[in-house]
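Readers outside the structure-tokenisation community will struggle with the description of the input data as it stands. I therefore recommend that a typical entry be quoted early in the introduction. An entry of this sort, consisting of the sequence and the corresponding backbone structure tokens, reads as follows:
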Amino acid sequence: MFPWKLVLLLAYAVGFSDAALKIEPIYATFNVPEYGSATTTCTNLDVGGSQPEWVDPNGQIVGPVGGGGSTDKHVSLHVDPTTAQRFTRMHLSNILKASGGGYVCRADGETENININVYIPVTLLDEDGEKSQWMTYHESGSLKCTMHGETNTVVSWDGPMGPIADGGRYLITEMFGLTIDNVTLDDEGTYNCRGSIPNVGVATVLQIEAAVYMIPKIRYPPINKNATEGTSAFFNCEAIGEPQPTYTWYDGSLVLNDPDKYLIEQDGKRLTILNLVKDDQKRYTCEVSNPAGLDRRDGELTVDIPPTPVRAVTYEKDQGESVKFYCDIQRGDRENLKLQFKRYEKWLPMGVQVDSRIVIQEETGTGPDAGQPGSISLTITDIHRGDEGDYTCFARNNGGYAMSHNILHVRYEPVINNEYSTRKVFSWVGHQLNLTCHWFGYPVPTVLWFVNNQPLVGTVGEVAGNATIYDFNNGSSSLFIDTSTNDFLPYQCDGRNKFGRNRHHIQFERAYPMKRPTNVQAISASATTIEVSFDNPVEVGADYPEYLRILGYVIGYSEYQQPTEMYEIVQNKCLPTEFQCGRLCIEKDRRCDNFMDCLDNSDEENCNADEDCTGGFKCPVRDGNRNPCLPISYVCDKEPDCVDGADESEESCTAYFRPIFYDTRLTGLAPDRLYQFRVAVINEVGWGEWSFNTSERTLGYGPPSEPMIFNREPDRDTIYEIVWLEPYDSGGSPIISYELTYSPVETGDATELGRDPETASASKDSDTAPVYRHTLTNLKPGTFYFLELRAQSTWGKSEPGTLNFRMPGGAPVLPPSEEPLGPGLRIGELPISAFIGIIVGGFLVILILLDCLCYCTNSCGLTMCICVHLCGKQAPEDKEEAEAVEYSMAASTAGNRMAMQRLAEFETESNAVSDGASQYQSLHASRMADDRWKLPTHATYEADRLLQGQLEQHSDSPSQTPSEIRLQELQMRKLGHYDYDYDLDRSTVSGSRC
């Protein structure tokens, strides 16, 4: 049995008997990078043949290391132990470009060649530095891709949008860079720079992340500022750019970095200059920068120095002398400087004043008694005491304003101030009061008190009784007295200074309680009330000031010959902001408003009739431009509103807000009893003398008297609030409830209820409330109403209180009339035939209206058929065809932009038909996706089928125009008998079966 190696050797001998040499790798050209390594093997396929040898391009045999070879180029000899074939392996290391070329393998007279191509590989010279680059927006940008390699290296680029071709906006340079013209934001992204050597098949790729930067532009530059010395000023600067720019502030060429002077906030966008001085007035520069560039803008700061007026002076002058004040500034900007004098709250204009003694003029020149250029002066000649006080120098410029106060004291003897000094006063035993003296004068007068021309020193005097003196530093002094019997004497006060002495006399009179009233009598009586009438005492008015003014009345009453006496006090007890009328207190604002709020209409009396102050109070003295008319609520409210205080005088308080004591009625009495009563008048001293007793008997039990209703205007169209007082006479038993009956009436003076009156009940809100309310709802606007109100007790109903009112809103709505609709015919008397005729006629009217509606909206119905077949009106189908033809004509006239655009769409469809069914499908699908071409579901299939056939027919008849196709399409849609709706030249064309 043959060994397996021998079998294998024979197989090789048979199979390769024609073979010679074999080189591996089997490349016509073996590409090897410079300084790289390569190994190639040459095998002698002839078993038993000689060892192959390698010859380099220079014709030199490559030998083994040390035997004609080197470490960079040598061969190794081998025998395949399996096939016994000899092969030689050539090793190349650190290959140089010069080592490339054709290498020959030879053995036994046979040769094989292999070309070793040594190429310079593509290398990236600055890979790390070029991985991230940027370009400037709207400028030409370059991306570097620095490579080294063969001269025939091919460079290609891929960008965010795909491969980049040389040309247009793109330029691929020989320096292996990419230049992009007019860089946009779309150019930002990832780029691949690829360098490859033709026929070698290797490439080097550099991935570049390119950003698009925007040169900073200051969008909101610093704005010029004016600021005042000692304050702070700020500048804002805001810029756009990519990446976000940085902010730097400059003073000229110097960077601002002093934190005690400059505060930079908001990432540099805001600069604040602190504690301004004049040297801070300059230009400040905001610089914004990023790698793409920078921008600079300036803002100018003006530091205004506020004025500092000249030193204030104080003069003391005698009456009749002259004085001169200057108004100027010691420091501050004189630009836009304005100087003025002010006397208390009044500005003094330039020139001669009203009394010609005061002159304000501009001053020039220098000197101790003259102002600087631009100053003004105020001169007063023939001084009198009314000139003393404050003369303010007021200076204003761009930096602000300042004032200095010049004081003038006029030396003169004391003069009494009658406005704040007591002249005559009434008092009574046990009453504490004060006497006041206030003196004008300079120096400030001292005040001395006298009683009956005898000095009053300290706090106790035998003649004066108890007295306390309070002195003030302004020439004023007050004497407080606890009045006793011996104090009703003349008092005097003296004012003294070094220029003179004067005396002021005070009348200290005794006040007395009022004398008894006269003519006291009962004028009416009911079961529970007696109305009392009386006259005031004779000693009332200006001729009897010692009795003071009347504050009210008191009625004492009791059952006849009974010891217990009760009292009914009628007195003004309302707040200062209220007005009293009887037992009611109303707001002063409701006086003189043309609405009766008091039952006796007293709130509409004593109203000012002046045309310019209707319903108000007119101040006697006008204060400048202020309106002299005051609301009545301002009168006697303890706050003076007129400059002379006339609204708070006793005369005004008495005339406009006197207590009205009309309600002198005794209430809550027992029925059928004899009562005796008497009356006294109340003043500040107390109750006066009682009148003589008078008697009267109350009536027996019975129904209550009628309620007293307020006549008020309604403030809403359908709601009215009824307000009333309980009856003054309950009839001897408590009021249980109230009954309201009301109805619409024809006129505003009706005295009887109309048809179908409505009744409502109202309960008392409480047992103590004098006023009751009930709200009527669902009333008719513009309608007159008449109302009756009755009080209910156990003894029956009262007589009605009545009220007429009209609701606001529209025209008056008349109540239902009882007049017949026709001569002798009412609604309830209509015959049955008339009802049938009305129903049939109404049905016919409804049918006609529906048919007209169908004709107007869908062009169908009985009216449409009559118009088409009898009147010659165009049918809807013909109208559609005419509109389609009109549409195609409009497209050719360029008279309508929308029609031309639609015609272009039609021609696009026509062109698509000739391109085949597939294009038709896509066109049809896109058209059907548009809402304007969607058909109802039940018509889609038939429309597609007819349209498909028509388009196929058109492919054989190219002479048809797109407009004709559209017209035929409209006709086919009609054949399908389905609804359709599409937009035609912004007008809706619709069709439906008739």
